[in-house]
Amino acid sequence: MKNQNWFPCLFSNGICLFRINIFQYLLLTLVLLSATSDGSSRTCRFPKNNHNVFWTGGIVSGFIDFVNDDESRLKLERINAELIGEFVQVGKKINDSLPRNISRVKFHTERVLVHPIGTQGNFRVPYGTNSWPFRFQLGTNLPPSLNNNDPYMSSIHYFIHITFVRREWYNLNFESKCPIVVKHLSPSVNAQKVEAKDKNRKGIRMHAVLPENFVTAGNYFSFEVDFYNDKRSTLKIITATLIQNQQLNSEENNLFVLQKQVLQNTQDFKGKRFNGIFRMDVPHTAPAAFTYQLTSNYAKKHLAVNYYVLIEAHLPGFFTNINLILPITITNAMPKTNLRI
Question: Where is the Arrestin C-terminal-like domain (predicted)?
C-alpha cells in the first residue's frame, strides 16, 4: 500500500514543483523585460558653465534631462542622487601573465537634492523631455580630480550617481552617472628661487636655476641652465622634463611625465661652456599640488601629489649623465568669468 501511494505523491509534488518553476520563470522574464524595454535616456546638463568643471567651495548646479520615449504611464517613486569621490589605485605589474590589481576607494559620498517641481511621493513622468534641477556646494577641502592619460597611473574621479526609483517593485530602477571635474582653488604662495648643481665623474659640471618655484596651470615658467665642459667632451643633448609625482602612504611613488623637451642648441655641443634661458608650458589640465587623507569604511590612504623639473645632460659613456632636480609648485587659478559663490 505504501508503494502505491508513493507514485501519486511524487507525481503530485512534481506538478507542484513544475508550476512553481514556471511561475518563477515568468516573473523573472517580466522583470527582465521591464528592465530592457526602457524607452528613455538620462543626461546631466550644466547650462551655467557649459561644461562640467567646478571649483572647491563653489556651487554645482544643473539639470537632469530625462527623455521618456515610452508612451505608457511611467511612474517614479523618487529620485536619489549622490556626489561620489572615488580613488582608483593601479597596482604594480608583478608578471606578464597576471593583470594589474585595480582597487577603488569611495572616499567621499554626499547626498544631492533633486527637485521634481510640483511632485509629492509617486509621480508620473510625461512623455517627452523632462528636466529636474539640482544644486549643491562643493566642500573646500576636497582633493582635485586627478586624471591622467596613462591607464597605469592612479586617479581621482568625481561623478553624480543618480537613481530613478521605480514605483513598481518588479521594475528595475534607472541609474545614470554624470562625471564632473573638481579643481582646487590654490592659496597664494610666495615665490622662491630654486637652484641645483652637480658634476659627473669626469669633472663636467651643470648648474640650473628656477627663478620662481611656482606656476599656474595653463601658464609657463622659465629656467636657466649653465653647462661647463672644460674637457670639451661631446654633449649629446640636454633635456628638461616636468614630472608629476604621486606618493601614496609615503611609500609608493608613481611618476607621470607632463612635458618633455630638448633644450635648443644643446645637441652634439662640443664647446667649453653653454648657457641658456628656456621656458616650458604647463598643461591647463594639471591639478594643483595637494596632500589628502583618503578615508573610507575599508581603507585609509595618504595621497600627496607634487611636481619637479628634471634637467638631464646626456653624455657618452657609462654613469656620466648629470641629473638636476628643481622642485616646483603647480597651482590653479579660477578664471575671472567663473566667479566663486
Answer: 200-335
Residue 188 covered by a domain? no
- Tell me, yes or no, whether 66 and 19 share the same domain: no
Helix (H) or strand (E) holding 34: helix 2-36
Q: Which amino acid is at 247?
A: Q
φ, ψ dihedrals at 146, nearest 5°: -125, 95
Distance between CA atoms of residues 329 and 5, nearest Å: 87
Give the span between the Cα atoms of 190 and 129, in whole angstroms. 51
Rounded to 5 degrees, φ, ψ at 34 are -65, -30
Q: For cell 521605480, name the residue.
A: 166
CB 53 within 8 A of CB 180: yes
Q: Checking DSSP bridges between strand 53-55 and strand 174-183, what pairing results, if any?
A: parallel
- 74-107: pLDDT as tens digits: 888 888 899 999 998 876 666 666 667 788 889 9
Of 20-24, 163-167, 174-178, least confident by mean pLDDT is 20-24
H/E run at residue 33: helix 2-36
pTM of the complete model: 0.77
Pairing between β-strand 74-90 and β-strand 123-125 as defined by DSSP bridges:
antiparallel
pLDDT over 50 (residue 30): no
| Within-domain flag for 337 | no
As a whole number, mean pLDDT of residues 251-273 equals 91
